[in-house]
Amino acid sequence: MAATAAAPETHEAKATRAVRGAFFGFFVDMFDIYLPVVVLTPAIAYFVSPQLSAGATSLVTGAIFAATLVGRPVGALIFGHYADRIGRKRATLVSVSGFGILTIVIGCLPGYESWGVVSVVLFIALRFIVGVFVGGEYTSASPLAMEYSKKDERGPNSARIMLGFPLAFFTISGLTLLVLQFAPSGDASSPYSVWGWRIPFFLGGALALGFVMWFARQVPESELFEEEGGSDDAPVKQLVSRDVIGHFAQVFILMTGFWLSLNTVTAILPGILKDPIGLSATNASLALMIGALVNAGGYLTVGYLAQRFGRRPFLMAWGISAAVLGTFVYWLLLHFQPSAMVTVTLLVAAVTALVNPCWAMITAYINERFATGIRASGFGLGYSLAVVIPSFYAFYQGLLGHVMSSTYTALPLLVIGGLLITIGGAMGPETRDVDLGDVYETGRPTAAPASEREPRFTREPAETGARDREATTVAMSREDRFR
Length: 483
What we know:
It contains 22 helices and no strands. By secondary structure, it is mainly alpha-helical. It is globular.
């Protein structure tokens, strides 16, 4: 009896460590992703020619950020395959080790005065490789955590994991603010430009390597993955099969809206606060820190709402709200360009709260859309592949600048992003009540006990395998999605 009573506690302890590991992993992931946006902005003059125009400099900054984002789906493809066939934990350790080491290497790069244009080209190339490794972290660690989570805890646990983003953004902004106090920014020879920006990069690399050591000791492999086994067929091949491709396309549309709307706040807004709003680098960092704290509160709220009312209605309502209310508040900031720090901070916090917190439930939602044998690939690619089109936001702004004032070019992108969230949410089913271990079986009204399940990914004789697999679909249909 004592042993029986202890078993649930052991599973709960594993689940807690898995969710905690996914949170910390996502924190260091997001810390690394947004280093160029927040930390490098005051020091970009160090890497570009002094003759470069402001517009061209903005394109360079956008290219550095875009290189990281474009690398993410490549990493999701590589590490998703690895995680679905070998295991979630090992894929997580390799990916985080990779971007931790490379982030430290980037912190050692010389500037334009020493290496000329080679310095920024190398920076962009290294950030692309970092993006590949970053794409592997959440592709592996997040499915592991969701597979440990109880059905009614997936929404809140998803929010806890995704909370790593606003807290990382807050930490980066605070760290930048701190460094600027003893290493002022300015031209390419200023203390911050020469060495101040390196401190957050070194710290980011150290955080990643510290996480690897903790994760290796504390977080076990997914029990559901070990029970069902990895996929014998290539996961990507299954994702593009007739039964699954429609589900993947729906996730792609949804996530394109997520990324496009997010970039208007996290990538474009920091630059707007400096020009045309006119905040100093210190005040801009302070405003972003406060916005990140508000965002964190929004994440916890969204985790509850999406669990209480369902994923589908929440997504449809949020997209409309972001496209209308979020765009209106953003317009107020751009149109009136207030000089009072308090007013700017309130508007930044309001825009952030109206646009970003929807991310809190996306880890649960996408993991609920795919089978165990392809879940890491489905989640990683669904989450990351959609980032490619929105990552070129700076170029879209340049094009929009030919037909409207360049001051307002972020607004159409936010409207489009919000509408895509609504459309993508409406295209998909409700997934709140999905059982992650059984949603891929058709013709079975209730879940069988774990001891009675047959592994879903086993090697079959060549002459019977294809025919037998047709009887069991890996896609979720509306009728068989609930217990």
